């Protein structure tokens, strides 16, 4: 499975701000959106362009346009925290939603919501979720978008760990995964170490 850690001084600085436990929810959200925007700028380098004829005020010329629909799929709820930044860059992107929760006893992932978009079959699809921890939610979300017919799928997260990447590579080896940072490991409670705590709680100011 192709995995890219998008290292850049701006991303590293912003992620460090997010990791600090005394960072406010407002600053956490702002930095998350800014990182998501920087990451997507890099990730989208391979979107195909179509040549078109245009007229400038001076003369006819050729230009290039993105014709393929772009679909963003946030995994609820933390994935929502990456949307604003990406939408600033790609305002025409369609948004599909996938709601998942983990049964704390069986640790199984369950779907409680899923709504696709038109033409996802032909789209460039980016699933977004800040934390790739055990890999369970990522696998389930990719299962769902594949059932919807999506073919060109990428998974975009902020922090990943080797355990989650390994599981994901086993189930969906062709899906490209991008992270701002590959962290060390999972702890016994399933949190990423050193990580940044519960991303959803920090985004929404919940406990
Ligand atoms: N989900 C989070 O929000 N944080 C972790 O560390 C792991 C999973």
TrEMBL record:
Catalysed reactions, as listed in the record: UMP + diphosphate = 5-phospho-alpha-D-ribose 1-diphosphate + uracil
Assigned keywords, A-Z: Allosteric enzyme, Glycosyltransferase, GTP-binding, Magnesium, Nucleotide-binding, Transferase
E.C. number: 2.4.2.9
CDD domains in alphabetical order: PRTases_typeI (cd06223)
Residues forming coiled coils: none
InterPro entries: PRTase-like, PRTase_dom, Upp_B, UPRT, UPRTase/APRTase
Cofactor(s) for this UniProt protein: Mg(2+)
Binding site for 5-phospho-alpha-D-ribose 1-diphosphate: 77, 102, 129-137, 198
Membrane recorded as keyword: no
Pathway connected to this protein: Pyrimidine metabolism; UMP biosynthesis via salvage pathway; UMP from uracil: step 1/1
Alphabetical GO biological process terms: UMP salvage; uracil salvage
A GO-annotated cellular component: cytoplasm
Cofactor, how bound (note): Binds 1 Mg(2+) ion per subunit. The magnesium is bound as Mg-PRPP.
Annotated binding of uracil, by residue: 192, 197-199
Domain Phosphoribosyltransferase: start-end pairs: 6-206
Gene3D superfamilies: 3.40.50.2020
Similarity comment: Belongs to the UPRTase family.
The protein, known as: Uracil phosphoribosyltransferase
Gene, per the UniProt record: upp
């Amino acid at each position: 499975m192709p995995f890219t850690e998008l290292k850049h001084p701006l991303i590293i600085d912003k992620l460090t701000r997010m990791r600090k436990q005394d960072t406010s929810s407002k600053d956490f959200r702002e930095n998350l959106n800014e990182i998501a925007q920087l990451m997507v700028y890099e990730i989208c380098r391979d979107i195909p362009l179509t040549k078109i004829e245009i007229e400038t005020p001076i003369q006819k010329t050729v230009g290039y346009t993105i014709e393929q629909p772009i679909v963003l799929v946030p995994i609820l709820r933390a994935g929502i925290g990456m949307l604003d930044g990406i939408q600033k860059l790609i305002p025409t992107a369609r948004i599909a939603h996938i709601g998942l929760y983990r049964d704390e006893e069986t640790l199984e992932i369950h779907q409680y919501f899923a709504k696709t978009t038109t033409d996802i079959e032909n789209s460039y699809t980016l699933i977004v979720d800040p934390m790739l921890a055990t890999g369970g939610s990522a696998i389930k979300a990719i299962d769902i978008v594949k059932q919807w017919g999506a073919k060109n799928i990428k998974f975009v997260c902020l922090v990943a760990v080797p355990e989650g990447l390994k599981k994901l590579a086993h189930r969906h080896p062709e899906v490209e995964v991008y992270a701002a940072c590959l962290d060390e490991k999972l702890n016994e409670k399933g949190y990423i170490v050193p990580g940044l705590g519960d991303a959803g709680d920090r985004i929404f100011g919940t406990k």
